[in-house]
Amino acid sequence: MKTNKERILELKTNGYKISFENVFNLAFENYKKIAVYAGLLFLVTTVFLGIISVLIIAFTYGIANFQDLIKPENLDPKNFSDEFLMIYIASVTLFSCLASPFLAGFIKMAHCAEIDEEFHVSTAFEYYKFSYFKELFVATLTLSLLNMGIASVLEATGIPALSFIGSLTVTLLSILTVPLIIFSDFKVFEAINTSFNLVLKQPLILLGLLIVAYLFLLTGVFMFFIGLFFTMPFLYSTYYAVYKSIIGFE
């Protein structure tokens, strides 16, 4: 029996065939199994982190300064200093890196649902083990820097659409990076390179799946915004379905 890495090597050389309909159906059926549980976990975690963030900012700047900081006129990006923007970008990037193992846990949750294995809150935090955490942290940091670099270069052309297309391209090409790390034990750059290589074998189908996943996610905004927390798991079910359909498991 071939290992995952042996099969992946063959896929990189010979390519593969996938069906949009089959992958979407797998993602949607899987999503229905985790939607409520994962949605509630997203909601509770976001509220908790939001409260902690507000308290930290309030005590850092002082209550009076914090109230002044959140006035609408002070939230206009045009009024932000270069120093503030740098701190903001660095903070968002750091948060994304720290949160990446948590989000990877939802892909694992989707896997558990697929094989009828019980999952718990601890499943979402499973990849904070150091062996996985460092790979996911560096992978997220690398892709974030790559994304920002490409977006900045394309934005300099004066055509905003190019910057968006650049960001979308990086997101699409890296769709398999996290699953390769958590399911196939790939290292950071091996996972990124393999993801790019495999996605380029079937870019249009995978782009269609990614767009549908984001459109589905955005429907949550129209459900009093809180629905976003319950449509979000579909994105991670899609990541899982793509990995399972292309690579599978031993």
Automatic annotation (TrEMBL):
Transmembrane segments: 34-64, 84-107, 136-154, 160-183, 204-230
Organism (species): Flavobacterium glycines
Record keywords: Membrane, Transmembrane, Transmembrane helix
Protein name per Swiss-Prot or TrEMBL: Beta-carotene 15,15'-monooxygenase
Source organism superkingdom: Bacteria
